[in-house]
Structure formats: C-alpha cells, structure tokens
Amino acid sequence: MGNVLIFGHKNPDTDTICSAIAYADLKSKLGLKVEAVALGEANNETKFALERFGVAAPRIVTTVASETNEVILVDHNERQQSAEDIDQVTVLEVIDHHRIANFETKGPLYFRAEPVGCTATILLKLYKENNVEVPANIAGLMLSAIISDSLLFKSPTCTAQDVAAAKELAVIAGVDAEEYGLDMLKAGANLSDKTIEQLVNLDSKEFEMNGAKVEIAQVNAVDVNDVLARRIEIENAINIIIEKKGLDLFLFVVTDILNNDSVGLAFGKDASLVEKAYNVKLEDSKAVLKGVVSRKAQIVPVLTDTFNQR
Amino acid sequence: MGNVLIFGHKNPDTDTICSAIAYADLKSKLGLKVEAVALGEANNETKFALERFGVAAPRIVTTVASETNEVILVDHNERQQSAEDIDQVTVLEVIDHHRIANFETKGPLYFRAEPVGCTATILLKLYKENNVEVPANIAGLMLSAIISDSLLFKSPTCTAQDVAAAKELAVIAGVDAEEYGLDMLKAGANLSDKTIEQLVNLDSKEFEMNGAKVEIAQVNAVDVNDVLARRIEIENAINIIIEKKGLDLFLFVVTDILNNDSVGLAFGKDASLVEKAYNVKLEDSKAVLKGVVSRKAQIVPVLTDTFNQR
C-alpha cells in the first residue's frame, strides 16, 4: 500500500504543517517512502512561510486508511485531534511536545515527546542524531514553526532549547529571525479577509472545567483595535455559538503580537470568573490581560483553577 | 517533598531494575535529586547481576505519593503495571520499549519510547546524547538487562541496536558478554529453591483473547527436564488456578536457554488451540514449541490469532 503519511493536528498551525514537511524530508533521506499531508488548509501565517521558502503546501486529507496502512504523527497524539480514521492504521512514530492522552497502540513504536515549545526543536535534534544536514528551505520552515509557537520567543512555553534551535536554523536559512519573524506574525495577524464566523472559529478550542463548558478562541493582531472595532458583530456571533453549544463561558482573546498583551472578551453566564481569574474588571465584556499570550500556559490552567475553586 | 523516584514495572525483571538504577545514575549526574526504587523483590537472575557488579538492590515500595510528587518510569507506561497510586503523582519522564496504553498526563513530559529489545539500549543513547560516561558497574547492569530481555541475543525482539549496545557495554564493564550472559541466565534458571506455587506464578500474565481468559506463564531452564519432573504437581497447581480464575487456557512455557526451544504444558478446555496454533500434538498435555522463546513476539500474537479464527 501507499507511502507512509506524515501529518499534524486538525486546524493546522505553522508548527503542525512545517514539522510534517521537515520530518518527511528527514525520513525520506533515511530511506522511508513518505509524504507530508495536512488535515486542513494552511492559515495565512503558514502560507507566508511556505511562500517565503518556496515550499508547496501539503496535500489536504481528512481520512488516511484508504491510501496507507502506516502513519507518523507530528505535533499531536490525541485521537480526537488526528485523522478521522486514525484507529484503522498503524502509528509508526510520534514526534510531539504536548501532554499524552487518548493514545494507544497495539505494539511498540518510536514515540518522542519533549517538554519544549515547538515540535521543530525536537526535529532539529533528530536531524543531528541521524547526521543529516537540514536544507536551507526546510530550516526556514522549522524556524517559522518555532517563531509561531513561541510568538517570537515571548511565550512562557518557549524554552532555552527553542531559542538555541531557532538561532541555529536562522543561520542555515539565511534570514534574520526577528525581522522575518515579525513579518510572518504580521501576515498571520492580517484578519481583514476573514468573515466574523471565520474570525471566531480560526483557532478555537473547547474545554470542560469543573463541569462547565468553556470555549476559548485566540487571534493574533498587530493592532488589537482593528479586531475590537468589530466588537458588536463578534458578540452576536459568539452568543449564537453559546446558545447552540450550551456553553457557560466563551472567552475571545485578541493577542497583541507587538506588545505581548491580550484583550479578552468574555461572554456567557460564567463571564465573571474571568474577572476573578485575572483580578480584572470587565467593561463592555472587555478586559486587558497583561502579559498573557499563551492559551496553553496562561489561560487554560488559570481558568481551570478558578472554576475548581468556586 | 522527597527525591524524584525512578522505577520499572511490577514483578520486576532484570531490565526494569537495572534500567532504574542506570537512569538514576545518569539523572543524578545531570543534577536531578533522584532515587531508584523497585515495585517488588529482585529475581535470582537480577540478584546475580547486582552481586556481580557490586550494586545494592533498590529499596522496595508499593506506593509513592506519600514520599514524592514526581516520578520517572522506565520499562513500562501502562497504569496497571505501575505503582498503586501512580495517578496521584506527576510523571516527569518515561523511557520505555513497550506499546503505549492506559497512559495519560496533564501536561507535556519527556516520553522516549523506541521499538528496541531493551530499555537499557535506549539509556545508552541518552548517556551519549548528554555526554556522560557510563561507569563500569552501571555498564555491567545495562549489559545484563539486554542479555536478559534478548535471551542472549536469541529472542526475535532483539534488534541490531541491542546487539551493538551490548557489545559496547561489555567492553566498558570488562566482561565477556556470552560467558557472563550464560552464567547470569543460568542463575535465573535455577528454580530449585522455588515452591510449585512460586514456579507457576514467577512470570505469569493474563490475557483476554476473543472473549476467552488465557494465562501464560514462562520460566527459563538450563535443563527443561528438571522442571518437567514436577509435571504432576504443576498440573495440580495450575488446575486450582484455572478453577479459581475461570480460565479457558493456562499455558505453562519452559524455555531451554541453551537450545532456544520451549516445552509447553497446556491445560483448560481450550488447550487444543495450542495444538492448532503451533501445529503440534499435545501428549500428556505437553508439546515441544520449536524455536519459541518470546511470549511477547511468539506466543501472545500467535494464540490471539488462533482464538480470533475459531
């Protein structure tokens, strides 16, 4: 049957797509027949990176079992984040930097997860361990992944290993990390072509917190006021989602990629828990969340604790 | 709270105990406060290795949460094989060579699983990646682990990486792998001090196969006739277990560590499926299983297929 497919999670971001491409490059040089694919369309930020380094976007698939028996996962391991029919194929390898959950295999496999800020940081180690040189265009994509996941090294999820890897990759790619990185983040923060529904769903995840249903969406912006100008339309769209899904809280986070603060818009009957969690006052459903840039590190655990304490 | 505890699975074997000791050596040299412990007493084979290389057996624990918040698992990841209260502590790292199942974390961790024959083979890579030298006595224990898991490189689970690692470790430890290895396996195969109940339970695991309850026990022997001389007592002990647990099949496997064959004793109403699985005839409940040495690779999957086909 077909090539081994390598892919990242649904709603792909820059790390998920660039790491699939990079690992496919490494594995093919090690003699495996592979193809990088994606479980969705690349976002504006990722498209900017792919164009800059002259690499085509991966083919989009939603299921895999009809064309292969074997897959390699990057940047995720949880079943519900993966291909729809992931249970019908053998997972040969996983390269990831997230928690492990909802994952099970029949036999031994290569599973490499490390608590770093980006999958690409682990991939650079794998290139070295296998004595394979990183090509300049792949180095550019891996650098893009680190910049994206770390918000140009400002996120609390960013480790010294990520910074060192990015420095090394920037030299191979021949770009200035800070200058290129800001251009790439700005390309991703260009939301002018998005409808309100796209804006609200662009990077949205649902969580259960002490029995409450909480959804948290995040968008990056160069000027948060560009997004906040559409506040009324956003509120209407979110209220429809709250109604439809029976949510207790919808937190819409607009992150300022230049100043590394966020503005939160909180709706739903538990909106006041955002005030408690960050010791702020919502005005017009809105509050500045000083220094908050990472949903994974600075929002989900803080809100979870607040829900657990009530 | 206390040191980070490093341990392997319940019913510890040589890889589980020696890998816990070796990884504790490496992690302490990397600055972490750790202690290797064990979830049970070392078997005769492991005791032989510990004595030969002058290393004390790890302290035995059954629970861990009363003395630490953080643990590192080696040679296993499944919850039911781990400490009783594993859900009450944070797993910092896992180093393993088994399938992944029944494992979940709240946050990212270092998880390194590889499809090789022995955990110690992965640990040798970690020593190198961290530029730490393996001390001679630790190298001896790691070599012992590889010899044990691979039955002196004869098991089908043994990979080229395991053989290469063992060769390197034997030089550091200053021993002849074949000569030392056979002495160690013989020490483990000395069953003369075991009661019939100990013999039958020494290394016994239960499986579900297409709805049937199957238990498979395995012991190593230098002369299988030493064990088979106690056939009547073994049969009586096993029939009591079959009755108590409602088993459909109990397969007792005596593996000849010199000739790398096994003799199987099959009891229970589904004993005939062993005949079908290996194309043999049971005589006095007994059959030679040519070339079979690995329960994981040569018994569980073969019997599972046979049960699934009926």
Automatic annotation (TrEMBL), chains A, B:
The record's Pfam families line, in alphabetical order, gives: DHH, DHHA2
Q: Catalytic activity annotated for this protein? A: diphosphate + H2O = 2 phosphate + H(+)
Q: Which gene encodes it?
A: ppaC
State the family named in the UniProt similarity comment for this chain.
Belongs to the PPase class C family.
Q: Which GO terms describe its molecular function?
A: inorganic diphosphate phosphatase activity
Q: Which cofactor does it need?
A: Mn(2+)
PANTHER family from the entry?
BIFUNCTIONAL OLIGORIBONUCLEASE AND PAP PHOSPHATASE NRNA
Q: What class of enzyme is it?
A: hydrolase
Source organism? Paenibacillus turicensis
List ligand-binding residues for Mn(2+) 1: H9, D13, D75
User: Could you tell me where this protein is found in the cell?
Assistant: Cytoplasm
Give yes or no: UniProt keyword Hydrolase. yes
The superkingdom of the source organism is Bacteria
List the EC numbers from the record. Answer: 3.6.1.1
For this UniProt entry, what is the primary localization, expressed as one broad class?
A: cytoplasm
Q: What is this protein called?
A: Probable manganese-dependent inorganic pyrophosphatase
List the keywords (alphabetical): Cytoplasm, Hydrolase, Manganese, Metal-binding
User: Cross-referenced InterPro entries, in alphabetical order?
Assistant: DDH_dom (IPR001667), DHH_sf (IPR038763), DHHA2 (IPR004097), DHHA2_dom_sf (IPR038222), Mn-dep_inorganic_PyrPase (IPR022934), Oligoribo/pAp-PDE_c-di-AMP_PDE (IPR051319)
The signal sequence is none
Cofactor annotation remark: Binds 2 manganese ions per subunit.
Q: Where on this chain does Mn(2+) 2 bind?
A: D15, D75, H97, D149
Describe the location of the DHHA2 domain by residue ranges: 181-307
Asked whether the UniProt record includes Chaperone among its keywords, one would answer: no
